[in-house]
């Protein structure tokens, strides 16, 4: 019996450990203190009001939202046809192509970031919108292809075959049959790619410029120089955003399956 | 070009432009030398590689980073295994909720999670307050040193580890455990003889990912280490952004890729052993 209670306590402690940093930023964001002090001497909304006056962070947040939307759209346009071919096609070299297209996920982001920095400097892409979009595509595209491939491979091919045997052109089969059937998968891909781009920090850190930066980079720089509860307020909002996307994902396809594991 | 080629073309083109070309360029750059005046000299030369091989600082950097990564991997496995097993055995209606709770931190930015650890481990943070409450006059420092970095990395890598372990537990059959138990095996014996061996492929994959992700971790050592914890990734950043010595940064990148390659080789070997 004692063994059982100890086991329960261990599991509870491990859960607390895992969730503590994400959960604790929320009470900290209501701190009334000027520094990171636990327990806060009082609670207030001062950091939530101070946050909006931090123009650099707010501008970076706008950039990040716009960038994540652009990355989402570009990824879907590029990954959808590729995923259809790779999930359905039976040709030589298919697996090598999948490995090539998803390889950036396996490599250290810091190495990818450095490689992009060196190339981008030569083309004047540092701190530019096209540069940031391309840099984010490097990590977003592999995710997009992987999640969409899973979505395609769970579709019953018989429906599409029926449509084409009744004389529908390939584009029409895709638009009327395939796309509607895989809409949950597309939604999952869009949500994951949005988060990947919105949270991406290492690669962004190398390719942003003084005029154009993203929210995670601005937060990184802020935390590097100052430790006050302001970032806790921003973090609390980001945790809420993530939570709502997680709920949407879980409802649409199931989180475990969406992450392709 | 037939239809499949046309459909794959755009994605492959983008891959070539932002993955293959920059990586090849990076590898080539390690065979150049940084000029004292700044900029990169004409190559090819082995000077950069020679200077790294001779400098004890870099040798220690690589072995130190590998050591930290191994330590973090073992701790992540120890922390993740009981949780994953608990989730695997939970009743179906709880399992989904527990899994979402375990995996969702994966989707929260590394900056936010590292900041959360600063709130907990900082000099005026939660743990220090608790230790003071328990009567410790001067709690040990847990930020701006390796302790804090390791604690945070273990937590940050736990969701990945748990995902891999859960995939591995898929082969685990409750009836096998029951059979062993009904034949009189004590609980620890059922664990070491049935549960653990069957879960080894998942353990190996989780360890590979945890190791690889620690070697390439940057945000956590940079923020929680406060410049005092120097690992391969933070050194690559400093050389590239602060010192502006791109050839050295490129060579260190190639080195960390080599560490990755070795880890993958070892993983393949071990996987064949445990599956045999």
CATH homologous group name of chain A: MetI-like
Mean pLDDT of chain A: 88
CATH fold assignment of chain B: MetI-like fold
Largest interface: A-B, 82 and 79 residues
Please count the helical segments of chain B. 12
The number of distinct β-strands of chain A equals: 0
Shape verdict of chain B: globular
- The run of helices and strands of chain A is HHHHHHHHHHHHH
Structural class of chain B: mainly alpha
- Hey, roughly how much beta strand do the residues of chain B contain? under 5%
Provide the helix percentage of chain A. Answer: over 70%
CATH level-four homologous superfamily name of chain B: MetI-like
Molecular structure report:
The complex is a heterodimer of chains A (261) and B (276). With 261 residues, chain A is mainly alpha-helical. In chain A, α3 (55-88) crosses α11 (215-225). Chain A has helices at residues 2-29, 46-53, 55-88, 94-102, 109-123, 129-153, 157-165, 170-181, 183-199, 202-207, 215-225, 230-252, 255-258. Chain A has 13 helices and no strands. Chain A has one domain (52-258): MetI-like (MetI-like fold, Orthogonal Bundle). Chain B is mostly helical. Chain B has a single domain (61-275), classed as Orthogonal Bundle (MetI-like fold). Chain B is 76% helix and 0% strand. Chain B contains 12 helices and no strands. In chain B, α7 packs antiparallel against α10. The two termini of chain B are 44 Å apart. Chains A and B meet through α1, α3, α4, α5 and α6 of A and α1, α3, α4, α5 and α6 of B.
